[in-house]
Amino acid sequence: MFSETATGLEQMFQNLASESNKVGLEMNTSKTKIMTNSIETPISIEGQNIEYVKEYIYLGKLTSFHSNRNENEVDRRVNLAWRNYWAQKEILKGDYSLKMKKIIMDSCILPTLTYSSQTWIFTNTIKNKIRSCQHAMERSILKLRRIDKKRNTDIRNKIKLVDALQHTMTLKWKWAGHIARYQDKRWTTQTTNWPGPSGKRHRGRQKKRWADDIAKIAGKNWTTTAQNRHNWKKMEEAFTRTGAIQ
After folding, report:
1. How far is it, in rounded angstroms, from Cα 201 to Cα 57?
2. Residues 6+ apart with CB under 8 A from 115
3. CB burial class (10 A; 0-12, 13-18, 19+) of residue 123?
4. Do the domain assignments include residue 183?
5. How many domains does the structure of the chain reveal?
6. Average pLDDT score over residue span 218-225
7. Confidence of residue 202 (pLDDT cuts 50, 70, 90)
8. d(CA 63, CA 104)
9. In this structure, what are the phi and psi dihedrals at residue 61, rounded to the nearest 5 degrees?
10. Which of 20, 52, 95, 127 has its CA 20 to 30 A from that of 86?
11. pLDDT reading at 243 higher than 70
């Protein structure tokens, strides 16, 4: 639930609890959390205070008001991908064919690493984190060390994994096209088009926004450009090329 005021949110909670009770349901207050970018005003449901948190995992994605939430989410994805990698070590580190290892990497590890990447802001730091993670896994599979001085491109050509960074950027580009073509007022459209807090942005270098890299390829009016599916598809390659292996 979203509200501009603590009073409004508390009333929404009370209404939900009341309607739930009518059908024999009860709100689990221990699992109900609140996040705010303002003052943490105490809010209670049926006499129990609801906990305020700085971040929360919702539908598998880190949600937070922190300015570095994007980087934190990618770090979390990298850690989860490694955990999944080591869970499959019997195959990935064993005497199985590279073809079998590629199947495991592309079908099990890649989705873990790139989950929710449609929402990411691709700064250079983020791009390097994704590249480094996949390169390290490739070297681990081939039992290579840094001192072996094997080029990343040569390693990729040998294993032939789907490029993780280009994959994430493809997902984002396609998702942006879907959002732009929605004709209703769903949350995804409204939040994407939201200009941000009122007032001028701070002086100096500005933080990168979600649509900045898309606008760099498709222009500031990218939502209009996306209406032409054919042209949008043609621009996809130019967008994903910025994530080419290094």
Report:
1. 29
2. 60, 61, 77
3. middle
4. yes
5. 2
6. 93
7. low
8. 29
9. -125, 140
10. 127
11. no
CA-wise closest residue to 209 among 241, 183, 245, 172:
172
CB atoms within 10 A of CB 86: 11
Residue 194 placed within a domain: no
Average of per-residue pLDDT across 15-33: 91
Integer CA distances (angstroms), 157 to 28, 82, 96, 169, 208, in order: 51, 22, 18, 20, 33
Domain that holds residue 48: 6-53
Q: For the residues of 218-234, what is the DSSP string, one character each? A: H-TTHHHHTTSHHHHHH
Can you read off the two tokens belonging to residue 176? Answer: 């942006």
Helix (H) or strand (E) holding 48: strand 48-49
User: CA 243 to CA 176: how far, in whole Å?
Assistant: 17
Cα gap 20→31, rounded to integer Å = 16
Q: What is the largest CA-CA distance in the chain?
A: 68
Q: Mean pLDDT for the chain?
A: 90
Same domain, 132 and 159: yes
Q: Please state, in angstroms and rounded to a whole number, the distance separating the CA atoms of residues 220 and 182.
A: 18
Residue 204 lies in a domain: no
